[in-house]
Amino acid sequence: MGSSRELMAASVDLFLGGACVGCRRPGPALCLCCSSSLDRLPSEARPSPAPPGLPVVFAVAEYDAVVKAALVAHKEEARLSLARPLGRTLALSVFGVLSRSRSRSAAGSPGVVTLVPAPSTRRTVRERGHDPLLRITRECGRALRKSGVAAVVDPVLRVDRPVVDQAGLTAVERAANLAGAFAARPRRRLDGRCVVVVDDICTTGATAAEAARATAAAGGNVLGVAVIAATTRRRPPA
Ligand SMILES: [Zn+2]
To answer: How many angstroms separate the alpha carbon of residue 176 from the centre of ligand 1?
Structure first.
């Protein structure tokens, strides 16, 4: 809570008879109690086995009932007021990536950080009527800038060839389905820019690895991947 826009979103939810997606109590789309699932320290998440080329991945939340409900309600039911808390959670993960990359490099702060969302197919965006990850990423960028991190959002990647729905595929099948599937949009480059690839969930890491590969192919310096939740067991920070 805090900003007037957020209060407005909460009031609209209340006025329309909304309920918390986590506990179904009447009120804002995510009550204070349930939002504590989204407000934790980021830690490294590594699927096992990790696909080749997967950079460091940070997640904040376990993919528990509240997180799943919030992501699904935002994505499928267009509960758009959830973008802000989800974006703030994603920003915590980006902090995790940035502090890891600072501790590993003598270069210090990367300056401006470019957030590159993993792409969705145009068909998916059309069917949903909105681009949930891009909306969350924009809120994430806003949260980072408020905290003094120079962050820009650049949805530079697109799905460049037909892929099948990842649901139901094994880790190996997912990696094969996505190998070489993403690319920068025509005439777009990321030369020399420090990039954090962002996504909502990391399961097998196939999407994150492919997005990182395509980002590097476009000239970006990939610092790591930040996600809201990981289905893998998380490791404590080293
Ligand atoms: Zn709740």
So the answer is: 39
Question: Is residue 197 within 8 Å of residue 53, measured between CB atoms?
Answer: no
Question: Is this model's pTM higher than 0.85 or not?
Answer: yes
The Å distance, Cα 79 to ligand 1 centre, comes to 14
DSSP string for 213-224? HHHHHTT-EEEE
CA of 145 to the centre of ligand 1 (A): 28
120-168: pLDDT as tens digits: 888 888 888 889 999 999 999 999 999 999 999 999 999 988 888 888 8
Q: Helix, strand, coil % (nearest 5) of the chain?
A: 40, 20, 40
Of the candidate CATH numbers 3.40.50, 2.60.40, 3.30.40, 3.30.70, the domain formed by 39-230 belongs to: 3.40.50
The amino acid occupying position 60 is: V
Compute, in angstroms, the gap from residue 24 CA to the centroid of ligand 1.
6
Domain boundaries, the chain: 39-230
**Tokens describing residue 67:** 């997180």
53-85: string of b/e by CB count within 10 Å (b at 16+)? ebbbbbbbbbbeebbbbbbebbbeeebebbbbb
